[in-house]
Amino acid sequence: MIEARHLRVLREVARTGSFSAAARELGCTQPAVSQQMKALEQSAGTPLLVRTGREMRLTQAGEALVRHAVGILAGLTAAEEEVAAIAGLRAGRVRLVSFPSGSSTLVPTALAAMRAAHPRTRVSLDEAEPPRSIEMLRNGDCEIALAFRYPEVRAAAPEACADWDDLVVRPVLTDRLVGLVPEGHRLAAAGSAAFGDLADEPWIAGCPRCRTHLVEVCESAGFTPRIDFATDDYPAVIGLVGAGLGVAALPELTLASVRPKGARTVRLEPAVHREIVALTLPDLARVPAVGAMLDQLESAAAR
Amino acid sequence: MIEARHLRVLREVARTGSFSAAARELGCTQPAVSQQMKALEQSAGTPLLVRTGREMRLTQAGEALVRHAVGILAGLTAAEEEVAAIAGLRAGRVRLVSFPSGSSTLVPTALAAMRAAHPRTRVSLDEAEPPRSIEMLRNGDCEIALAFRYPEVRAAAPEACADWDDLVVRPVLTDRLVGLVPEGHRLAAAGSAAFGDLADEPWIAGCPRCRTHLVEVCESAGFTPRIDFATDDYPAVIGLVGAGLGVAALPELTLASVRPKGARTVRLEPAVHREIVALTLPDLARVPAVGAMLDQLESAAAR
DNA sequence: CATACCTCCAAGTCCCACTTATACTGGTGC
DNA sequence: GCACCAGTATAAGTGGGACTTGGAGGTATG
């Protein structure tokens, strides 16, 4: 087995024409070069160099080996270069999967910051909700899955989050839920309400997991919500409330980039939070570009 | 510094998708593979593999490295292949330089035998006499120099052969000198003659070194030869003798492939020999093709 | 629930690569 | 002709690293 180290030495010897000169170039002692060449000739099975006293000349086998060495070492250098670029954030692609409608403000901000910080990296964005996004993560279809969870649900049914325990869970943002009532609603002016105050209202719920959570919270408050509509689409929820068809509890972030028409937000008591987290695999968390993107998500949340 | 050994393991891991399977393929234990991959990731500065429990997947950096590894390992294999071909006499070129007119029978026989024994090797032939051929040998313009020497000259003037003492001198053939006299000469019928018998004849001499030797031998016999002609070309010597212009002392080998016209050979007493030797550099003697060619020269001389 | 398979970790052993020191050789100066 | 210099080969010693063995932990599969 020919070793790349030997080829490097051989090339330098061929270039300089001397063991000592090659040793100086390579930063080692002359006997080291001598021994490596001996070992290489041993494994080659034929002399590679002719020592004629004054000068060092290549045999035919030596010439052949040097000829190949150039290409091999160039390939090695290119490989190191490319890997170093990925390791040094001068290259690399991150595939991010976010929950639908969670990418309205947080993700764009993080993407912009990532591009500014590491212009040569590329981040692709796709939408999926757990458990689909987790599946994608495990299948290698993405590096980061952005998801959310409700602490209350996690406490009540830990098995629902069981498949996260071998993942890296990076908390990004905790997002308080606010109430949304039609303009002119009796609570619209109050600016604040307890869940119990909305016990008799028709409710507009969000995604299935949000709906489950809503039921859980309301039951803690002593009532079971009457849910008339449920949709994954937050603008649709706002529209429904605006049309006076019911009330809703929405994460604050979903209202950050829109101004609800015909509806008013009210502070909900007690405080209930949605926790937005970025998920990845332990090994992937150590990939520079992935780590950088996680950092950018966290920074974006801080603003 | 990425090592080829690591790339080989990485490629196998990528191919089989498992450390254990790769270890089996490579003939080592699984921890060995595990450690090598760890070391490679260390030097790469980023994870190359994602362990998801059931399967092993490549990261982007891992994919890049495998992509390069294919070419690098192919280059290494090609290099080993070519060197092994040279070492195994399935390739290789030998440049042989022979003294002029010494290549009439010995060299052709050896070349034919070499081609028969190792058809894939190539031997080129050039003509030059020492010290020119020695210079070519030292300059790297040939691998084998075929030359001859006269033991008497070597004993009388050792400094003439001083520049051979760091060379490999392989005796190939000792070639007795025979006398050549015109047909009808008084000694032609005798079949044998002493040098002294030819003291009064006009002489035809060969190359400068042969001429020097002839003078030396004749002086040992008690006379100084009258040299009328001198030529490097043995057929010319034979022609001159055949034309009755003088007598000559020729190595037996020069008459092996020609039948002198108008001249007769006579045994010369005392016996005087020319020693044909093959010269090469110590390192070159260990090159398989060179060694094989030396052997073929020796075998050719035995016939 | 037991089994089989795979990976990681820790410890021990052995080998190999490099260094230092020294002898030897050839070319070069006075 | 002799000493000097540069370069190479060799020997001995040392340190690191690569592999093995042995064991623990975890995950699919029967």
From TrEMBL, chains A, B:
Pfam family, one: HTH_1
Keywords of this entry: DNA-binding, Transcription, Transcription regulation
UniProt keyword DNA-binding, yes or no: yes
Keyword Transcription assigned: yes
One GO MF term attached to the UniProt entry: DNA binding
Cross-referenced SUPFAM superfamilies: Periplasmic binding protein-like II (SSF53850), Winged helix' DNA-binding domain (SSF46785)
InterPro entries: LysR_HTH_N, LysR_subst-bd, WH-like_DNA-bd_sf, WH_DNA-bd_sf
Location of the HTH lysR-type domain: 2-59
One GO cellular component term: protein-DNA complex
Protein family: Belongs to the LysR transcriptional regulatory family.
Protein name: LysR family transcriptional regulator
Source species: Streptomyces benahoarensis
